[in-house]
Known about the structure:
single chain, about 290 residues, D-amino Acid Aminotransferase, Chain A, domain 1, nine-stranded mixed beta sheet, six-stranded antiparallel beta sheet, 8 helices, 15 strands
Amino acid sequence: xxxxxxxxxxxxxxxxxxxxxxxxxxxxxxxxxxxxxxxxxxxxxxxxxxxxxxxxxxxxxxxxxxxxxxxxxxxxxxxxxxxxxxxxxxxxxxxxxxxxxxxxxxxxxxxxxxxxxxxxxxxxxxxxxxxxxxxxxxxxxxxxxxxxxxxxxxxxxxxxxxxxxxxxxxxxxxxxxxxxxxxxxxxxxxxxxxxxxxxxxxxxxxxxxxxxxxxxxxxxxxxxxxxxxxxxxxxxxxxxxxxxxxxxxxxxxxxxxxxxxxxxxxxxxxxxxxxxxxxxxxxxxxxxxxxxxx
Length: 294
C-alpha cells in the first residue's frame, strides 16, 4: 500500500488526515515542489529545497528545511522506491486556522510528501515535439507571488484546458506588457542564430530548477545565453524552441498556434542541451556515492 508523510508520521494513502480548516485546502495558502528521483536519489534536491525555503520565508510559513532530506528518504523507503525512479510531491501549507484571510499569528504548518513510480513522457513526444498555444489571459508580472510555486494553480489549470481544447499540450502566458513569460507547467526557451533566449525573471515566471541547470549547461558549452523581454513574434521567428521542467527535462517545442517553429522538428541546439541534461541526470544512476541533489 502507498504511504505518504504527514507532519512527522508516515500514513497509509487511504487514510485521509487533512483537516478541513487547513488553509492550503481552503485558500491555496502554501507552496509545493515536484521532484524526480533516480534510483532513490532526488535530482537537484538542494535547489528544490532552497526554492521552497526561500518561498516559505517570504510567506512567513515556518519550515525546518534541514530535516527534509531525511524525511524524503523515509517516504521513498516506505513506498519501496528507495532504489527506484520516482516522482515526489512535497506540499507545505500554512496549516489549519479559523475562517478569514489574515494569516494566524502562530501558524502550525502542514507538510505532506507523496511518492510514486516515475512515469516518463512518451518517447514519441520528444521526437515530434510539443504543440502549444498562446493563451489569451495575461500573467501579472507585478503580483506578489508570481515567482513562487504556490498551491493556487488555477491559472495553469485553465490554461492547460484551453491548450487541450486546441489540440495542444501546453499553453504559453504573456505578461501584462505583452512579453513572453512561461508555459503552464514549464519554462520557455527559444533559439535564434545559435543563441539561446529565455524570458527574464522579471517577466513574471517561476524560475525553474531545470531552467537554471540548462542555463548553466549552455554557458559551459559556450552557447551564448540571453535573458530578456521577448514578444510572441520573437518566438514565432525563432529557429527552434523547447520547454523545461523537473519531470520532462528538456522537451522540444515545435509548433505554436498551429505554426511551425523553424522546420517543425526538434532543433540541433535543443537536442544538444537535452542530451547534456539527460546525461547529467543519468550520471546519478548506479553512482551510490553521488550527492543527492547534486
